[in-house]
């Protein structure tokens, strides 16, 4: 049975949505949740039938969002430290946290450790596309000063994730650039392009450069970029999604005809909202560590935490980590892994 350590205290709204989400996941599928945090606060949120059945790992400290990520390494009694430590000590298989993302990433990387051949783990996220599928984008924030070999490794890891967890037989991998031509991009992109181009003879479907609009086009399954670029892309996309929804609501109220049209289009709007809803995905996996870590949004709802737990379970059961190691070993002779 998969064991998931949950940082019960790290979110913006305290333990209540985190604990509720873990309970919903527990009722939805078979796994062992371990809640790290204040025992009294957690127990008060557990329904009577689950008290004594769900393990609680005591933690007397919480890393705040405005704390430095490096503080987490020293504060051994924090809920995120305790949750990650469970995975590091093989007492849990995965960790889920809606707390300080930098602290989660740093602790997971240093305490759980990296997979063999992985220089830097990457944060991945799913972007909705116009054809109803999803594009996996990485890195979206783990590394802001990447080298070509780091982007190359992200491509290999993203390919393995898409094939193993997203069940795509032959994932198309692209490199994010300012144009689709082979000559586009800055020094980092151009050098990475050459590394990825050389994989085309090894059953790795590198499809070339992708432009920003291609993220939502559905043509590519995996798009690779530097963490700085990826994080800007992610935050811009989130902001645009909220702005579009607000603009539609504002304009609909201005005309009776628009109100009628909106009523007829309600199923379409509902589907669109679901595709853009962060809660549907739960969190972003940190790919490349010797375990599983799902980084959720600080404002996560119980639904988001539930889906983050379910995503952690799928990650563990998929066997994606051995696949990443196997794939990277194929390129060890090229100095990129």
Q: Can you tell me about this structure?
A:
The chain has 337 residues and is α/β, with parallel strands linked by helices. The protein has two domains: 1-118 and 288-337, 3-Layer(aba) Sandwich (Isopropylmalate Dehydrogenase), CATH 3.40.718; 125-279, Isopropylmalate Dehydrogenase (3-Layer(aba) Sandwich). The protein is 43% helix and 15% strand. It contains eleven helices and eleven strands. It has helices spanning 15-28, 39-45, 79-88, 101-112, 148-164, 187-197, 227-252, 256-264, 266-276, 302-318, 320-329, and strands at 3-7, 32-37, 55-58, 94-97, 122-128, 134-138, 173-176, 206-210, 222-224, 284-287, 292-295. The chain has an eleven-stranded mixed β-sheet with strand order 3-2-1-4-11-10-5-6-9-7-8, sandwiched between helices. Helix 2 (39-45) links the parallel strand 2 and strand 3 (55-58). Helix 1 (15-28) packs across helix 10 (302-318). The chain is globular, with a radius of gyration of 21 Å. The two termini are 32 Å apart. The relative contact order is 0.17. The mean pLDDT is 87.
